[in-house]
Amino acid sequence: MEPFRYHLFVCTQTKPEGVTSCSASGSKRVLDALNREVQSQGLEDEVQVTTCGCLGLCDDGPIVIVYPDGVWYHRVTPADTREIVSAHLRAGKAVSRLQWSDAGAMKAKALEHREHVRAAQRARDQAGILPEDLDNLIRGYWPSRVMLTALELDLFTAVGDGASAETVAGRLKTSPRATEMLLNALVSLQLLQKNDGVFQNTAASARFFAQSSKDNARGGLLHMANIWRNWSNLTECVRRGTSVKTEKSDREWTQNFIAAMDRIANERARHLLKTLGSDGIHRILDLGGGSGAYSIAFTRAIAGAQAEILDIPEVVPLTEDYVRKAGLSDRITVRAGDMLRDSFGRDRDLIFLNAICHMFSADQNRDLFRRACQALQTNGRLVVQDFILERDKTSPQFAALFALNMLVGTEAGNSYSEPEYAEWLRAAGFGEVTRVRLPGPSDLMVATKL
Ligand SMILES: C[S@@+](CC[C@H](N)C(=O)[O-])C[C@H]1O[C@@H](n2cnc3c(N)ncnc32)[C@H](O)[C@@H]1O
Ligand code: FES
Fold first, then answer.
1. Which residues neighbour 184 within 8 Å (Cβ) at sequence distance 6 or greater?
2. Nearest ligand to residue 340 Cα
3. Residue 434 CA to chain centroid, in angstroms?
4. Do residues 391 and 328 touch, judged by C-beta distance below 8 A?
5. From CA 380, how far away is CA 366, in angstroms rounded?
6. Theoretical Cys-Cys bridge with 150: which of 125, 155, 185, 446, CB 3.0 to 4.6 Å?
7. For residue 123, how far is its CA from the centre of ligand 2 (angstroms)?
8. Distance between CA atoms of 100 and 92, rounded to whole angstroms?
9. Which residues approach ligand 1 with their CB closer than 6 A?
10. How many whole angstroms separate alpha carbon 218 and alpha carbon 152?
């Protein structure tokens, strides 16, 4: 069976630095160029391009295989991709100068490579050397920290349309020596490019991290730099069983936090709208609504719907600003308060707890659900959106790690499992409780008051 006329495999295997591999020979650039050519030559619906792991022919990479023809190309460069697409995929004639036709020699090379890899693994194992994946895991924070520092300094804006290390250091008022080290590391992470000593943003860096771009996400991403400080206390938090926060939530911290939430919420709101529909939704209560992204999306989509957002006093001016900019101040009211104490009103059709329950303890959530149920009218729904763990709490990985994010950042927060949510919701008085799986890391618990 062959669902597509052609299926191309591009080896994108990475190997430790200094070891020959397709990815070190530029196979990711070949992959991008192939995808662009397939699209621009109008073959997108007939040709599938996917990646594959090591084929044992690393010295001759990048390797590209074309099925069902069984043609193996070697040493492919981005410049070759136009010919591969036009001559082979369009006209059916393989590009002979790139083709590898000696199957016997290829097999011998692949087997020799396999034996070499196995021998190296055995030697490493016998010497008791830490496996590479564990070694990489331990150093995993290096690239992240480089990126966070670049964001904190607003380095991508300082690089602008291209600048030397000295110019960037001048703009940032940082040490020229250290700035050059940081810039070089960013090039190694493919977040910048360097030509003749001039550093340049990549397309993605210019788009998402530079001030002049409309898609600049730096404000929201700085939240990750802020919570880094909490994470550095993890060991002590595990000893004590609660957060030992050192960093204060000042105005800038709050702004970054709400911007980060807004970035995520804008993307998630459409899934929620699709799942919940608009029937019977007139009076919405958005608990801890943050930027108001969900209330904004729902009141925009449902004629006549009104929403109230309850959030803490420090956040309310920011919420009001987002609502005003959306032109919805007449349909969304914003109340300063504490959801753990203040009234939820009555006769609500829909109550949101989006990214809220993980901040609180099990008992606090039980109480929130009980009071939410009282504030809903019959057939009204409470929607909890969160990172929901499976029963044994070890997966999904994101939710299991997020539990620690709450340990280091809150007094009693956690990630909770579906059975926990279901039990609390039923105990609160909800008649129907369903889990709705959504694309991405968070899911919904939808509870209806019957
Ligand atoms: C993780 S954010 C989620 C924001 C929003 N629901 C969303 O999904 O984008 C948590 C929100 O709850 C608010 N919050 C925290 N504790 C609160 C409390 N006791 N009462 C009201 N709001 C609270 C925070 O200020 C923040 O806006
Ligand atoms: S890394 Fe591509 S063939 Fe080995």
1. 194
2. 1
3. 26
4. no
5. 18
6. 155
7. 21
8. 17
9. 261, 265, 288-291, 293, 310-312, 315, 338-340, 354-356, 359
10. 9
